[in-house]
Amino acid sequence: MEPFLMQAEEARMKRDVRILFFCQALMNASVVGQVAMGGLVGYSLATDKSLATLPLALQMVATMAASIPAGIIFARLGRRAGFLMGAAGSFCGALTFALGIWLGDFWVYALGALPAGIGFGIAQHYRFAAAEVASPAYRPKAISLVMAGGVLAAIFGPELVKHSRDLFEPFLFLGTYLILSLLPIGCAVLLTMVRLPPAPPRPKVTTPVIDILRRPAFLAAAGTGAMAYGTMNLLMTSTPLEMMACGFGVGASATVIQAHAVAMFAPGFFTGRLIARFGARTIIGAGVALNALCVAVAVQDETFWHFTVALVLLGLGWNFMFTGATTLLGEAHSPDERVRAQTANDFIVFGTVACTALGSGVIHATAGWEVLNLMLLPALLFALGLTLFLRPARIRAT
Fold it and tell me: What's the CATH code of the domain at 162?
């Protein structure tokens, strides 16, 4: 009977991971679609064109700001309540984006980035939830598989943009945002089917957050994650704008973003195995090399294929670096410190992303495409240095 119960528990665990995979896919689809069209919508509505990426920057600011209240909600009410609040934020954000387009008002459109960013920030914890429902041996694979939910988002999001942008002419992309508002509803339905851990018991003695922040393992994980996401976002956000300047249409830029997003998430089906075999730091180093190669391709020329190959390399590099950083984060905390460590990590990561989202439009408008690409290199070297020199003993067994 005991082997039977163990098999049943393992089957249930893998079912929960699959459901989280689809939740991640639905939440990411709206973000991928927003990347494909957000800069273009901002450019069309903003009087000052350097503000074209401001809505994306505000979305990342909200993502960063959401990390602290999300941590409190997860700690007190559990994962399910927090994820449902994130779905509600994404729903409200999509409808506000649609209202801004309907009114032709840039600032109303930008306002939609706030609830959308909150939803996106909370959705980042699906990878942590996967680690919590998985057994220690299955944990790296569970994390990478849930992150691979972005593959469906990468396919579906840009296709949705391309086929729904003209539904309510002359209000370009209005129909897209109305459809995107349905995705978090589907996510909320799936959340009723998954077994999630309850809110953790409050420890009698809590470790100060500053002590967690000082740990080499945390510095390596958060710093690498910030550089991975920040450099990726800096280049990705400005790519549709540069393609528009080169004469490419919305369909072409959406296809490039689609290829990029697939490259971001498809390795999730095997990145966990690579980390288990070679170690997180080796995989992070491979990600740094891929991102450096992306820069080399991007500055060579501005044909459709140069954009596509560069963004695919960027996506692959991001996956290796960010999945590796997420794995390293597990070395930085004990079980009772889990939520605080994850919250602090995401605050740092998405604070960096917010800065790059705003800076992307400004740098692109003032310094140009080549300078923007070359700015990735120092950040990549910094991330590589963190993983090479911060090699602490593990805080807990995984």
Answer: 1.20.1250.20
